[in-house]
Write a structure and sequence with these properties.
Rossmann fold, single chain, 14 helices, alpha/beta
Protein backbone atom coordinates (compact mmCIF):
# COMPACT_ATOMS: atom_id res chain seq x y z
CA UNK A 1 0.00 0.00 0.00
CA UNK A 2 1.53 3.33 -1.09
CA UNK A 3 1.21 6.14 1.43
CA UNK A 4 0.92 9.86 0.84
CA UNK A 5 1.80 12.03 3.83
CA UNK A 6 0.42 15.53 4.31
CA UNK A 7 1.97 17.43 7.22
CA UNK A 8 1.28 20.75 8.85
CA UNK A 9 4.70 22.06 9.82
CA UNK A 10 5.63 24.50 12.58
CA UNK A 11 8.95 26.05 13.49
CA UNK A 12 10.35 22.74 14.78
CA UNK A 13 11.56 20.34 12.10
CA UNK A 14 11.73 17.13 14.11
CA UNK A 15 8.01 16.15 14.24
CA UNK A 16 7.60 15.98 10.42
CA UNK A 17 10.91 14.13 10.14
CA UNK A 18 9.87 11.55 12.73
CA UNK A 19 6.54 10.90 11.01
CA UNK A 20 8.08 10.66 7.54
CA UNK A 21 10.82 8.23 8.61
CA UNK A 22 8.23 6.07 10.34
CA UNK A 23 5.66 5.99 7.53
CA UNK A 24 8.13 5.91 4.60
CA UNK A 25 5.67 7.63 2.21
CA UNK A 26 5.99 7.77 -1.56
CA UNK A 27 4.94 11.45 -1.59
CA UNK A 28 4.98 14.22 1.02
CA UNK A 29 3.22 17.57 1.26
CA UNK A 30 4.09 20.31 3.74
CA UNK A 31 1.67 23.08 4.70
CA UNK A 32 3.19 25.87 6.77
CA UNK A 33 3.09 29.55 7.61
CA UNK A 34 5.71 31.80 6.05
CA UNK A 35 7.74 31.95 9.27
CA UNK A 36 8.12 28.15 9.19
CA UNK A 37 9.49 28.02 5.64
CA UNK A 38 13.07 27.30 6.77
CA UNK A 39 11.91 24.61 9.18
CA UNK A 40 9.96 22.87 6.41
CA UNK A 41 12.97 22.97 4.07
CA UNK A 42 15.29 21.57 6.73
CA UNK A 43 12.84 18.76 7.36
CA UNK A 44 12.73 18.01 3.63
CA UNK A 45 16.53 17.86 3.43
CA UNK A 46 16.76 15.35 6.27
CA UNK A 47 13.84 13.23 5.04
CA UNK A 48 15.16 12.92 1.49
CA UNK A 49 18.68 12.16 2.73
CA UNK A 50 17.26 9.03 4.37
CA UNK A 51 14.35 8.05 2.11
CA UNK A 52 15.82 9.07 -1.23
CA UNK A 53 14.09 11.01 -3.98
CA UNK A 54 10.60 11.15 -2.51
CA UNK A 55 8.77 14.20 -3.90
CA UNK A 56 8.05 16.93 -1.32
CA UNK A 57 5.67 19.81 -2.05
CA UNK A 58 5.46 22.97 0.01
CA UNK A 59 2.35 25.09 0.43
CA UNK A 60 2.83 28.40 2.25
CA UNK A 61 -0.20 29.78 4.09
CA UNK A 62 -0.76 33.50 4.67
CA UNK A 63 -2.05 35.17 7.80
CA UNK A 64 -5.14 36.78 6.26
CA UNK A 65 -7.22 33.60 6.40
CA UNK A 66 -4.93 30.70 7.40
CA UNK A 67 -7.87 28.40 8.16
CA UNK A 68 -9.27 28.65 4.64
CA UNK A 69 -5.86 28.54 2.94
CA UNK A 70 -4.82 25.47 4.92
CA UNK A 71 -8.03 23.65 4.00
CA UNK A 72 -7.44 24.43 0.31
CA UNK A 73 -3.76 23.40 0.50
CA UNK A 74 -4.43 20.09 2.25
CA UNK A 75 -7.31 19.24 -0.08
CA UNK A 76 -5.15 20.00 -3.14
CA UNK A 77 -2.23 17.91 -1.85
CA UNK A 78 -4.51 14.93 -1.20
CA UNK A 79 -5.89 15.23 -4.73
CA UNK A 80 -2.41 15.36 -6.29
CA UNK A 81 -1.23 12.36 -4.28
CA UNK A 82 -4.23 10.26 -5.22
CA UNK A 83 -4.56 11.18 -8.89
CA UNK A 84 -0.97 11.84 -9.96
CA UNK A 85 1.00 9.53 -7.66
CA UNK A 86 -1.49 6.72 -7.08
CA UNK A 87 -1.32 6.90 -3.29
CA UNK A 88 -3.83 4.41 -1.94
CA UNK A 89 -3.54 5.59 1.64
CA UNK A 90 -3.39 9.22 2.79
CA UNK A 91 -2.14 10.15 6.23
CA UNK A 92 -2.45 13.69 7.56
CA UNK A 93 -0.02 14.50 10.36
CA UNK A 94 -0.54 17.59 12.54
CA UNK A 95 2.09 17.46 15.31
CA UNK A 96 4.05 20.63 16.00
CA UNK A 97 2.19 23.19 13.90
CA UNK A 98 -0.09 25.99 15.04
CA UNK A 99 -3.56 25.01 16.22
CA UNK A 100 -5.23 26.79 13.29
CA UNK A 101 -3.31 24.74 10.73
CA UNK A 102 -3.89 21.53 12.68
CA UNK A 103 -7.64 22.14 12.94
CA UNK A 104 -7.99 22.92 9.24
CA UNK A 105 -5.97 19.84 8.25
CA UNK A 106 -8.04 17.67 10.58
CA UNK A 107 -11.26 18.92 8.99
CA UNK A 108 -10.10 18.03 5.47
CA UNK A 109 -8.79 14.63 6.61
CA UNK A 110 -12.23 13.93 8.09
CA UNK A 111 -14.00 15.04 4.91
CA UNK A 112 -11.66 12.99 2.69
CA UNK A 113 -11.65 9.86 4.89
CA UNK A 114 -7.89 10.16 5.42
CA UNK A 115 -6.18 9.07 8.60
CA UNK A 116 -5.25 12.06 10.80
CA UNK A 117 -2.47 11.37 13.28
CA UNK A 118 -0.81 13.19 16.13
CA UNK A 119 2.49 12.09 17.66
CA UNK A 120 2.76 12.36 21.43
CA UNK A 121 6.43 13.24 21.47
CA UNK A 122 8.35 11.74 24.41
CA UNK A 123 8.77 13.75 27.58
CA UNK A 124 10.18 11.77 30.47
CA UNK A 125 9.03 8.38 29.24
CA UNK A 126 11.04 5.17 29.35
CA UNK A 127 12.20 4.70 25.77
CA UNK A 128 11.93 8.07 24.02
CA UNK A 129 9.77 6.68 21.20
CA UNK A 130 6.72 8.77 20.18
CA UNK A 131 3.24 7.41 20.75
CA UNK A 132 0.90 7.60 17.77
CA UNK A 133 -2.60 8.96 18.41
CA UNK A 134 -5.32 8.62 15.79
CA UNK A 135 -7.80 11.49 15.66
CA UNK A 136 -10.44 9.11 14.30
CA UNK A 137 -10.87 10.51 10.79
CA UNK A 138 -9.79 7.39 8.89
CA UNK A 139 -10.72 3.75 8.79
CA UNK A 140 -7.67 2.05 10.24
CA UNK A 141 -8.18 -0.14 13.27
CA UNK A 142 -5.94 0.08 16.33
CA UNK A 143 -4.00 -2.96 15.11
CA UNK A 144 -3.54 -1.41 11.68
CA UNK A 145 -2.33 1.83 13.27
CA UNK A 146 0.16 -0.11 15.35
CA UNK A 147 1.35 -1.88 12.21
CA UNK A 148 2.31 1.48 10.69
CA UNK A 149 5.31 1.29 12.99
CA UNK A 150 5.83 4.71 14.49
CA UNK A 151 9.38 3.98 15.59
CA UNK A 152 11.84 5.75 13.30
CA UNK A 153 14.55 5.84 15.96
CA UNK A 154 16.77 3.33 14.15
CA UNK A 155 16.79 5.65 11.12
CA UNK A 156 17.73 8.74 13.12
CA UNK A 157 21.23 9.82 14.04
CA UNK A 158 22.65 12.72 16.00
CA UNK A 159 23.79 14.31 12.72
CA UNK A 160 20.24 14.22 11.32
CA UNK A 161 18.74 15.76 14.46
CA UNK A 162 21.38 18.50 14.39
CA UNK A 163 20.66 19.20 10.72
CA UNK A 164 16.95 19.35 11.49
CA UNK A 165 17.65 22.33 13.74
CA UNK A 166 20.12 24.08 11.45
CA UNK A 167 23.40 22.81 12.89
CA UNK A 168 26.31 21.02 11.27
CA UNK A 169 28.61 18.60 13.07
CA UNK A 170 32.04 19.06 11.51
CA UNK A 171 33.45 16.70 14.10
CA UNK A 172 31.16 13.83 15.06
CA UNK A 173 32.91 12.83 18.28
CA UNK A 174 36.14 11.24 19.48
CA UNK A 175 36.91 7.62 20.28
CA UNK A 176 36.95 7.32 24.06
CA UNK A 177 37.31 3.55 24.43
CA UNK A 178 41.02 3.57 25.32
CA UNK A 179 40.39 6.02 28.18
CA UNK A 180 37.60 4.04 29.89
CA UNK A 181 39.78 2.03 32.35
CA UNK A 182 41.52 5.22 33.53
CA UNK A 183 38.21 7.08 33.78
CA UNK A 184 36.56 4.27 35.73
CA UNK A 185 39.44 4.18 38.23
CA UNK A 186 39.28 7.96 38.69
CA UNK A 187 35.57 7.55 39.29
CA UNK A 188 35.96 4.70 41.77
CA UNK A 189 38.90 5.99 43.82
CA UNK A 190 38.04 9.50 45.00
CA UNK A 191 41.19 9.85 47.10
CA UNK A 192 43.53 8.93 44.23
CA UNK A 193 41.66 11.27 41.87
CA UNK A 194 41.90 14.11 44.39
CA UNK A 195 45.65 13.52 44.79
CA UNK A 196 46.03 13.58 41.01
CA UNK A 197 44.09 16.80 40.74
CA UNK A 198 46.26 18.53 43.32
CA UNK A 199 49.48 17.32 41.68
CA UNK A 200 48.78 18.68 38.18
CA UNK A 201 51.32 21.32 37.15
CA UNK A 202 49.11 23.90 35.40
CA UNK A 203 45.72 25.40 36.21
CA UNK A 204 44.00 24.61 32.95
CA UNK A 205 42.32 26.69 30.29
CA UNK A 206 43.43 26.62 26.67
CA UNK A 207 46.74 24.92 26.05
CA UNK A 208 49.68 27.12 25.03
CA UNK A 209 51.46 26.78 21.71
CA UNK A 210 54.66 24.70 21.60
CA UNK A 211 57.63 26.92 22.38
CA UNK A 212 55.65 29.42 24.44
CA UNK A 213 56.76 30.01 28.03
CA UNK A 214 53.55 28.41 29.36
CA UNK A 215 54.24 25.27 27.29
CA UNK A 216 57.06 24.30 29.65
CA UNK A 217 54.75 24.82 32.64
CA UNK A 218 52.24 22.37 31.19
CA UNK A 219 55.03 19.88 30.54
CA UNK A 220 56.43 19.87 34.09
CA UNK A 221 56.77 16.33 35.59
CA UNK A 222 54.49 15.43 38.48
CA UNK A 223 53.70 12.41 40.62
CA UNK A 224 50.59 10.44 39.73
CA UNK A 225 49.05 8.10 42.33
CA UNK A 226 49.97 4.48 41.68
CA UNK A 227 46.32 3.46 41.22
CA UNK A 228 46.04 5.80 38.22
CA UNK A 229 49.58 5.92 36.85
CA UNK A 230 49.70 2.65 34.92
CA UNK A 231 46.23 3.18 33.44
CA UNK A 232 47.11 6.71 32.32
CA UNK A 233 50.35 5.44 30.78
CA UNK A 234 48.50 2.61 28.98
CA UNK A 235 46.00 5.10 27.58
CA UNK A 236 48.74 7.46 26.37
CA UNK A 237 47.49 10.31 28.55
CA UNK A 238 50.87 10.70 30.25
CA UNK A 239 54.44 9.62 29.54
CA UNK A 240 57.07 8.47 32.06
CA UNK A 241 60.01 10.72 32.88
CA UNK A 242 62.57 10.19 35.68
CA UNK A 243 60.27 8.13 37.89
CA UNK A 244 57.40 10.58 37.45
CA UNK A 245 55.05 11.43 34.58
CA UNK A 246 54.14 14.42 32.44
CA UNK A 247 51.26 15.18 30.10
CA UNK A 248 51.84 13.29 26.84
CA UNK A 249 52.00 14.92 23.41
CA UNK A 250 53.27 13.64 20.05
CA UNK A 251 56.39 15.80 19.74
CA UNK A 252 57.60 17.82 16.78
CA UNK A 253 56.92 15.04 14.25
CA UNK A 254 53.44 16.59 13.79
CA UNK A 255 52.19 20.14 13.31
CA UNK A 256 52.19 22.67 16.14
CA UNK A 257 48.39 22.71 16.02
CA UNK A 258 48.15 18.94 16.50
CA UNK A 259 50.73 18.97 19.31
CA UNK A 260 48.74 21.63 21.09
CA UNK A 261 45.45 19.77 20.58
CA UNK A 262 46.78 16.47 21.94
CA UNK A 263 48.39 18.14 24.95
CA UNK A 264 45.15 19.98 25.70
CA UNK A 265 43.02 16.84 25.44
CA UNK A 266 45.32 14.78 27.67
CA UNK A 267 45.55 17.54 30.26
CA UNK A 268 41.77 17.87 30.16
CA UNK A 269 41.36 14.14 30.81
CA UNK A 270 43.52 14.46 33.91
CA UNK A 271 41.69 17.55 35.19
CA UNK A 272 38.15 16.27 34.89
CA UNK A 273 37.27 15.08 31.38
CA UNK A 274 37.70 11.56 32.77
CA UNK A 275 34.17 12.07 34.09
CA UNK A 276 32.93 12.74 30.54
CA UNK A 277 34.46 9.43 29.42
CA UNK A 278 32.97 7.56 32.38
CA UNK A 279 29.59 9.14 31.62
CA UNK A 280 29.79 8.15 27.94
CA UNK A 281 30.75 4.61 28.95
CA UNK A 282 27.77 4.39 31.34
CA UNK A 283 25.43 5.83 28.70
CA UNK A 284 26.59 3.26 26.14
CA UNK A 285 25.76 0.50 28.63
CA UNK A 286 22.21 1.82 29.08
CA UNK A 287 19.68 -0.10 27.00
CA UNK A 288 17.53 2.93 26.16
CA UNK A 289 20.43 5.11 24.96
CA UNK A 290 22.28 4.67 21.68
CA UNK A 291 24.60 6.49 19.26
CA UNK A 292 26.64 7.75 22.23
CA UNK A 293 29.29 10.35 21.30
CA UNK A 294 32.05 12.03 23.28
CA UNK A 295 33.38 15.55 22.64
CA UNK A 296 31.15 16.63 19.77
CA UNK A 297 31.47 19.99 18.04
CA UNK A 298 28.46 21.74 16.53
CA UNK A 299 28.50 24.88 14.40
CA UNK A 300 25.87 27.57 13.63
CA UNK A 301 25.94 30.37 14.30
CA UNK A 302 28.87 29.88 16.71
CA UNK A 303 30.77 26.73 17.68
CA UNK A 304 29.51 24.69 20.63
CA UNK A 305 31.34 21.74 22.18
CA UNK A 306 29.27 19.06 23.89
CA UNK A 307 30.76 16.63 26.40
CA UNK A 308 28.44 13.69 25.66
CA UNK A 309 25.55 13.30 23.22
CA UNK A 310 23.22 10.33 22.88
CA UNK A 311 19.85 9.38 21.44
CA UNK A 312 16.94 8.17 23.53
CA UNK A 313 14.52 6.94 20.91
CA UNK A 314 13.99 10.04 18.78
CA UNK A 315 15.08 12.43 21.53
CA UNK A 316 18.53 14.00 21.75
CA UNK A 317 20.28 13.83 25.13
CA UNK A 318 22.84 16.60 25.71
CA UNK A 319 25.17 15.96 28.66
CA UNK A 320 27.68 18.12 30.48
CA UNK A 321 30.09 16.68 33.05
CA UNK A 322 31.70 18.68 35.86
CA UNK A 323 34.22 17.25 38.30
CA UNK A 324 32.87 19.50 41.07
CA UNK A 325 30.47 22.35 41.66
CA UNK A 326 32.11 25.57 40.55
CA UNK A 327 31.12 29.25 40.60
CA UNK A 328 28.83 29.95 37.69
CA UNK A 329 27.06 26.58 37.92
CA UNK A 330 23.61 28.20 37.77
CA UNK A 331 24.44 30.04 34.58
CA UNK A 332 25.82 26.79 33.22
CA UNK A 333 22.50 25.04 33.95
CA UNK A 334 20.63 27.66 31.91
CA UNK A 335 23.14 27.45 29.08
CA UNK A 336 22.95 23.65 29.08
CA UNK A 337 19.17 23.73 28.73
CA UNK A 338 19.46 26.25 25.90
CA UNK A 339 22.01 24.07 24.09
CA UNK A 340 19.81 20.98 24.43
CA UNK A 341 16.86 22.84 22.93
CA UNK A 342 18.90 24.44 20.15
CA UNK A 343 20.49 21.22 19.00
CA UNK A 344 17.71 18.77 19.86
CA UNK A 345 14.54 20.83 19.75
CA UNK A 346 12.13 21.47 22.61
CA UNK A 347 12.12 17.79 23.57
CA UNK A 348 15.92 17.70 23.92
CA UNK A 349 17.03 16.39 27.31
CA UNK A 350 19.73 18.38 29.17
CA UNK A 351 21.82 16.37 31.66
CA UNK A 352 24.45 17.54 34.14
CA UNK A 353 26.78 15.02 35.78
CA UNK A 354 28.70 16.13 38.88
CA UNK A 355 31.26 13.90 40.57
CA UNK A 356 31.80 15.96 43.73
CA UNK A 357 28.91 17.86 45.27
CA UNK A 358 30.55 18.52 48.64
CA UNK A 359 31.41 22.19 49.02
CA UNK A 360 31.20 24.25 52.19
CA UNK A 361 28.42 26.79 52.10
CA UNK A 362 29.27 30.43 52.58
CA UNK A 363 27.71 32.58 55.24
CA UNK A 364 25.43 34.03 52.56
CA UNK A 365 23.94 30.65 51.64
CA UNK A 366 20.90 29.41 53.52
CA UNK A 367 21.49 25.79 52.51
CA UNK A 368 24.14 23.69 50.86
CA UNK A 369 25.07 24.59 47.30
CA UNK A 370 24.24 21.03 46.21
CA UNK A 371 20.65 21.50 47.35
CA UNK A 372 20.48 24.80 45.45
CA UNK A 373 21.82 23.14 42.30
CA UNK A 374 19.26 20.34 42.59
CA UNK A 375 16.42 22.82 43.03
CA UNK A 376 17.43 25.01 40.10
CA UNK A 377 18.06 21.98 37.87
CA UNK A 378 14.59 20.63 38.64
CA UNK A 379 13.04 24.02 37.83
CA UNK A 380 14.88 24.20 34.50
CA UNK A 381 14.20 20.56 33.58
CA UNK A 382 17.87 19.54 33.73
CA UNK A 383 18.51 15.93 34.79
CA UNK A 384 21.21 15.54 37.45
CA UNK A 385 23.50 12.50 37.35
CA UNK A 386 25.62 11.59 40.36
CA UNK A 387 28.91 9.76 40.71
CA UNK A 388 27.01 6.74 42.05
CA UNK A 389 24.68 6.71 39.02
CA UNK A 390 27.71 6.49 36.71
CA UNK A 391 29.52 3.94 38.86
CA UNK A 392 26.47 1.66 38.85
CA UNK A 393 25.75 2.36 35.17
CA UNK A 394 22.25 3.18 36.36
CA UNK A 395 21.37 6.01 33.98
CA UNK A 396 18.10 4.46 32.82
CA UNK A 397 16.40 5.56 36.02
CA UNK A 398 17.68 9.13 35.70
CA UNK A 399 17.67 10.06 32.01
Amino acid sequence: MSTGLVQTVGWESLPPIVAALALRPCAIGHVHLEDSHASSRRAEAVITSVLGKVPVWHRAVGMDDPLLETRDAVRDLIRVMRTEHGCTRIVVHVTGSTKILAIAAYEIARDEGAECLYLELPKGDADGVPQVISLGTGKLSSDELAAIGMDPSSRLSIELIARAHGYALPQAGLDYSSYVPFARMALEDEDAEEAMHRALPADGGRAPWPGDREWNEWKQPFTLPRELSSLALDAGIVEAVDGRVRVAEPGDSVSREERRSVLEQNASLLRGAWLEVALADAAAATRTLRDVRWSVEAEMPRPMEHDVLALKGTTLVVCSAKRSIQPGVFGHLRELRAHAHRLGGMMGIPVLAIARTQRPKTRYESQSIAADVAEVAATLGVKLVSRRDIQDRALAGVI
